[in-house]
């Protein structure tokens, strides 16, 4: 598992850890039931407070991406198809918002945007 902390990003460190682990789970880079590094071990590797890594793990567990076995560690939870679908829908909505903003700056009509989407979909099939 690779985690990179960007001190210049402005994003809280726990959120960077949370986001990167979540991305690796959704992409399949981290497999179901795969053991994650211990909270203290990850903190030591990243040279940060264990409280920071603990918060990231707690968020991941709260959202159903990982589970904890007492005295054993944290593991990647079995994929919840609905949870992954919801995450992907949020990403699509963010991209659509960006498309709408870019389209407005280019004076594209709704029809132009839909035509571009239809064209892209036809290329996929």
Protein architecture, described:
This protein has 125 residues and is mostly helical. Helix content is 61%, strand content 6%. It has five helices and two strands, in the order αααββαα. It has helices at residues 13-27, 39-46, 50-62, 81-105, 110-124, and strands at 66-69, 73-76. The longest helix is centred in the last third of the chain and has 25 residues, at 81-105. The protein is elongated. The mean pLDDT is 92.
Blueprint (SSEs and pairs):
Elements: H1 13-27, H2 39-46, H3 50-62, E1 66-69, E2 73-76, H4 81-105, H5 110-124
Antiparallel strand pairs: 1-2
Helix pairs in contact: 1-3, 2-3
In which range does the helix fraction lie? 55-70%
Question: Which structural class do you get from the secondary structure elements?
Answer: mainly alpha
Please tally the β strands and state the result.
Answer: 2
Largest sheet: 2 strands, antiparallel
Give the strand order of the largest sheet, numbering strands 1, 2, ... along the chain.
Answer: 1-2
What can be said about this structure in brief?
The longest helix has 25 residues, at 81-105.
What tags apply to this protein structure?
125 residues, mainly alpha, 2 strands, elongated
């Amino acid at each position: 598992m690779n985690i990179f902390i960007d001190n210049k990003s402005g994003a809280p460190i726990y959120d960077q850890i949370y986001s990167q682990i979540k991305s690796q789970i959704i992409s399949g880079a981290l497999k179901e039931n795969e053991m994650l590094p211990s909270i203290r071990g990850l903190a030591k590797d990243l040279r940060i407070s264990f409280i920071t890594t603990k918060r990231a793990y707690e968020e991941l567990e709260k959202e159903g991406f990982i589970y904890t076995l007492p005295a054993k560690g944290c593991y990647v939870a079995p994929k919840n198809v609905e949870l992954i679908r919801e995450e992907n829908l949020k990403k699509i909505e963010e991209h659509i918002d960006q498309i709408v903003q870019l389209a407005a700056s280019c004076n594209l009509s709704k029809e132009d945007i839909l035509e571009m989407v239809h064209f892209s979909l036809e290329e996929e099939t």
